[in-house]
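Narrative summary of target 7.
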Amino acid sequence: MRRLLYVHVLLCCLSMAHPFCPSQCTCVFHGRTDGTGTRSVLCNDPDMSDIPVNVPVDTVKLRIEKTVVRRIPTEAFYYLVDLRYLWITYNSITSVDTASFYNLKVLHELRLDGNMISMFPWESLKEMPKLRTLDLHNNRLTNVPSEAIPYLLNITYLDLSSNKFATLPSELMDIWPPFNGAPISTNASQKVVLGLQDNPWFCDCKISKLIEISKMSNTPVVLMDLFLTCSGPENLAGVLFQRAELDNCVKPSVMTSATKITSPLGSNVLLRCDATGFPTPTLYWSKSDGSLVNNTVQESPGDGIRWSIMSLHGILYKDAGNYSCKAKNVAGNAEATISLSVAGTISTTIPPLSPSIETGPTSQDTTFIAPTDVPNSPTVMSTELPRTSTTLSAVPKKPKTTPSNSIQKGSPKQGKVQQGGNGRKLAADEKSKKSDASKSVTDLKIVEETSDTAVLLWTADGLPSDAPLTVVYSPYGDDDTKRTVETNAGSGKVFLEGLSPGMRYSVCLVAKGSAAGKDPCIDFYTLDIVEDGGQSQLFVIISGIACALVLPLIALLVYKILALYCKGRNTRMDEEELEKESYVKFETISMKHRTLAPHPTELWARRQTQESERMLLCSRSSIDSQMTYKSDSSRSEYLC
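Modeled conformation, tokenized:
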């Protein structure tokens, strides 16, 4: 009978719940024998285009899968106050509103994988304080903003794989060990699972911490895929994270001028720290309670180097404590601590007190004593801190007369003068103590100065060899561009570089504890760069070489031209003489006497010829030869 009653109650519950289930979804109630249970809803209709709004309010698990839903509207699940698992996977989601997950205070798991989300509202995670699992893989996300990091502190399963991430903010790794400073635990429940594979990672200093985690063997951060690869830059494309070596990526290191400082009460204190790293780290100071200190000055004299000075004026006992100088860049963090102690007493002058009867000890252990010898004497209060015992001398009141008034006016002045003398004495003692450091450094001089470098030499008589010294140099009269070089007293010299040619520089050697303005200094000039003379000398050398090569060629060319000219004239004269003599000899020479000659008795005869007949005759066509042959009846002879 009881079993039948249970079955009847269950059927009634199912019949009541059925009308509230969306038509395109399936609702299942997982009941227990004690009458309690949970409800899960599955919506996987391919024709569903909107998020269902009539889901049962007692739903614990809601799955919307393989639909054509493209947008998650504002406050889409605000009435599902018991919802712990929300899966909206493998749909067509492209837009998620900032308030889409409003009022999901107990949601433990959110899966949005397999969609087309390019912009995720990270600030919406603050509506889900108990969220531990966030699955965004296989989407189109490109970055995680730094503002989203506080909302990811409690996430233990984060899947960003198969997206378009090329980098991640360096601060993201700082929320997990070992970068958050927490001790590394082997407890499996404290593990953080990260899915980062299948992304085009650009391996530079920004993800150096992620690369470092991939190389660790024992770390609470577990990577789903250990074989992450770089897609850029070109020299690291295809290289595994575990084998990637980054260029120009160095963690910061911090060094302070001292670790413990004790300073008198009311004095001024300067604390300095230097940091190195690449990219150039940023520096900031903080107290032991974590509050930041603002009265600081910092400068970066070059890439990878930065120094900072914190100033405290008129220190009190409340200023004592630890001050941390922290350096940070995308490759990591570093810090160094300086402990400041305050010691000393305070002396002050108070106005005369009215006469009174000797008073017993008060709550502050104060005693009043009436003097009898010196009337109207100034009242001096001497306090030794941290003691609270105070001794006061009371002054009896005199009648108001002219002499007494003049005495009362003069007495405080006398007391002030006395106090001023004591103050000057203490200041002189302190000044003499501070000047010891500067007096121990002597023979300051500059040698081997060039246009951009110089060497500073000194002699340290009263300082130990490992005493820290700071070399401060800058152009003369320009205090805004000071540069510093840290060294020690035993080195005796330091190399100054980065100077400008032809300028006057001032260089000072600052020892620890030295008084301001009492440090040994020296001025020097850098050499000028004689660029014009060097260029003129080079021009002369090149011109000489050119002349040495060109002048012989010119002379040879002139000689050739003259030779050809003379040869041409000689050739023409020779040809003319040869034509004349060859023609005459050939035409007039004969072995027999000529009858046509005017003197037959002569063996050689000449005749006048015309200009048209002056040619060399070497054939029978010659008219003269034919005439000689006919007239002499003899065979002609030819001389060619």
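Residues 41 and 170 are 40 Å apart (CA to CA).
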